[in-house]
Amino acid sequence: MSKPANPVTVPLADYKPSHFLLTVKDRVATVTLNRPERKNPLTFESYRELTDFFRACAFDDDVKAIVVTGAGGNFSSGGDVFEIIGPLVKMDTKGLTAFTRMTGDLVKAMRACPQPIVAAVEGICAGAGAIVAMASDIRLAATGAKVAFLFNKVGLAGCDMGACAILPRIIGQSRASELLYTGRFMSADEGERWGFFSRIVAPNDVLTQAVALATEIANGPTFANTMTKRMLAMEWAMSVEEAIEAEAVAQALCMTTEDFNRAFEAFAAKSKPVFQGN
Which residues face 70 on adjacent strands? Predict the structure, then answer.
């Protein structure tokens, strides 16, 4: 189907991606989709390298949070029409299934990644690009951003890369159904009202605010934040009773960390705790 992706190595601060830009500063890794002349489409290779990157994040204790954004005023236009859609129409069932599983692996990797992910969405955010934003933990929008799950527009079902499982949990079943059946664009204002976006900011500020939010998270208790992300995912499939029991165990584990003790000592001293991630 394509050449193997560039193997991801840790520490991530030293890694040089082939298919996106990466910076690591103040314990925050910023991933920038970087094909601005085409509105940052995804390719076979970038799918694989992004998946490998998010999996590698679990092995870098120096990265505490992640920001995902796009270059040139757009987030991502989704799968590249010529580099992905064209080859797909020539594949057999086995090849197509391998492709759809590969794209789904990116969402699995983002959800399994222990670090919280903040998406800074500007301009066009469509197709697989909308999925990347959806799979992030928190989404900020620039004024004028537009999100569309375009699969219906190319004759495909809306059930792509986990959209039918995740999107209704974010914006509700009826709204998700409308977007997935029609493929229409959701405006930033709609997205904020519906809960897809946490806030709308000026285009010049969206990345800055996303990094600031990720830095705030990175400065928090790492083990506890990882546990929060894990439980937010796991409790989808639990009854309320099961969730309460699972949270009791998770919280008890957090109480064994040094960061919990640091928070108590700081409170007693009337100072702000400095968490160290253990």
Answer: 33
Tally helices (H) and strands (E) across the chain: 11, 9
Per the structure block, which two tokens stand in for 49?
A: 């390298």
95 vs 150: CA distance, rounded Å: 22
Cα distance between residue 262 and residue 223, in whole Å: 13
Query: Can you tell me which residue has the tokens 């995804």?
Result: 42
Contact 34, 40 (CB under 8 A): yes
Place of tokens 């910023």: 30
Look at residues 247, 224, 225 and name the one whose alpha carbon lies nearest to residue 235: 247
Q: Which residue is associated with the tokens 């998010």?
A: 54
Give 30's DSSP letter: E
Q: Are 197 and 136 in contact (CB under 8 A)?
A: no
Q: Please report the DSSP string for 206-270 in residue order.
A: HHHHHHHHHHHHHTS-HHHHHHHHHHHHHGGGS-HHHHHHHHHHHHHHHTTSHHHHHHHHHHHTT
User: What does pTM read for this prediction?
Assistant: 0.94
What is the per-residue pLDDT across 39-79, written as a single tens digit (0 to 9) for each? Answer: 999 999 999 999 999 999 999 999 999 999 999 999 999 98
- Amino acid 64 reads K
**Cis status of the peptide bond prior to 11, with omega within 30 of 0:** yes
DSSP annotation of 36: G
